[in-house]
Amino acid sequence: MKKLSVFRVLYTLLSALIIIGGSYLAIMYAQGNYRITKDGLLLESGLLSANSFPTGAQVYINDDLKTATNDTIYLEPGEYQVRLIKDGYSPWEKTLVIEKELVTQTDARLFPTAPSLTPLTFTGVENLLPSPDGRKIVYYTASASAQTRNGLYVLDLNDSINPFQRTSRQIAVDVPVYDLANANFIWSPDSSQLLIISHLKNILIDVNQSNNLQSLPDVSLRRSQILSEWEEEMYLRERQYLAEFPPEIIEIATQSAKNVYISPDKKKLLYTATANTTLSDKLTPPLPSTNTQPQSRSLKPDNTYVYDREEDKNFLVTQAFEELVSINKALLADDLDQKMPRNLVASPSAFSRLQQQNIASTATQFNAYHTSLVINTLQWFSDSNHLLFIEDGKVQIVAYDGTNKTTLYSGPFEKSFVYPWTDGSRIIVLTAFSPDSPKNLYSIELK
Fold first, then answer.
1. What is the pLDDT of residues 203-249, one digit of tens each?
2. Long-range contacts from 357-365, C-beta under 8 angstroms, 24+ separation
3. Are the C-beta atoms of 241 and 262 separated by less than 8 Å?
4. How many C-beta atoms surround the C-beta of residue 318 within 10 A?
5. Closest Cα partner for 225 from 332, 331, 342, 345?
6. What ranges make up the beta strands (E) of 135-200?
7. From the CB of residue 287, how many other CB atoms can be counted at a distance below 10 Å?
8. Per DSSP, which regions of 291-405 are E strands?
9. In the chain, at which end, N or C, are there fewer CB atoms within 10 A of the end residue's CB?
10. CB 120 within 8 A of CB 442
């Protein structure tokens, strides 16, 4: 009887040890530890999610071919050189840090090495300007075969529109005395109206319909009021978007930076520093898994950076980027330390940050506010993870953390115009392949 009691105690203890040990192993396994791989048993591991668009790229880790995207790989914690290769696409490469029990993603966008070129316009393009929402481009043409087909057009960049099946739509027939090729255009903040400032009259048109320029009233006397109202709307929107960033970043953006542009998803900030300063650590609560690329929290004048507010990371994109014009974007929301926004009055004297002494400067200030294309510097790509720019006569793209600079196009194009499609599937360039032909818009396919 005594032996039976001892046996039951030992059996209970053994069962408890097995349960405890099994539970411990199960927990450790669920956390990514004790994994059996081709390289042996990993007592501790992190997970590399090797994903790419398009998929099917070969995954090299420290120059060893491991798998193909999209796949997951368990690795010992440490630093790895990861390279993705796919035929017909530029290679992607980064040094990634694998951390214990965390997932690190490649999130690689691969760009074709020989993209196709498709014409979007055929009758010549002049005086073109993208809208604030990035979904339209207005331009003037005077080379159509019929006189009534000359005038203002809008090219829609809607994600759902197939550029092979959709052409530009005419929004106004040309009036030669207005000299639309040299007129100044200013978009409304909601991208629904266009202010045309010619030497004869100022006209406000609706870009969603056809307009008779000769019958529309002259708004010259109301121009300052219209622009002040637009500035107020832009100020309120900017204030709302910037308020999501940490106070220290807001202070830098409004006091010691220029050419500040918020990414399309409103989560990142592109800016050029104008003073030496250092960003504090931990401006936002840390996330469990973030971008592992080296940061640059010590800012230097004329260097361009991207701040990611979700991950509290600040990356150096380029050093002393050569700007081709002297105009810089001016921020409007410099009162973010106040709980209530300014009580702005729509009048020429109340709020005229962007309005200048002459019309050309005013138009340039407004247009530079909406897009960095006007400044000829870095501009956001549609996915908010890349930046477009021109260097050495080529269209280049770089990740927001400064890695994987890639040439997208090296053929002939006008260096004053490169613009992304809204879904990131293509970029648009302005070029002519013959000295006798007018310049037209062409689509460079990236998918």
1. 999 999 999 999 999 999 999 999 999 999 999 999 999 999 999 99
2. 359/184, 359/197, 360/184, 362/184, 362/186, 362/227, 363/184, 363/185, 363/186, 363/197, 364/327, 365/327, 365/330
3. yes
4. 19
5. 345
6. 136-141, 151-156, 169-173, 184-187, 193-197
7. 12
8. 298-299, 304-308, 313-318, 379-380, 386-391, 394-399
9. N
10. yes
113 CA to centre of own chain: 21
Write out pLDDT tens, residues 145-199.
778 899 999 999 985 555 455 578 999 999 999 999 999 999 999 999 999 999 9
What the block records as the tokens of 138 is: 């207005």
Length of the chain: 447
pLDDT in tens, 384-395: 999 999 998 999
- Tell me which residue of 301, 312, 330 sits closest to 247, measured CA to CA: 312
Place of tokens 């790229």: 57
> What mean pLDDT comes out for the span 124-142?
95
The residue written with tokens 């997932």 in the block is 103
Q: What is the largest CA-CA distance in the chain?
A: 116
Task: List strands edge to edge, sheet with 46-50.
Answer: 71-75, 46-50, 103-105
In sequence order, the β-bridge partners of residue 268 are 308
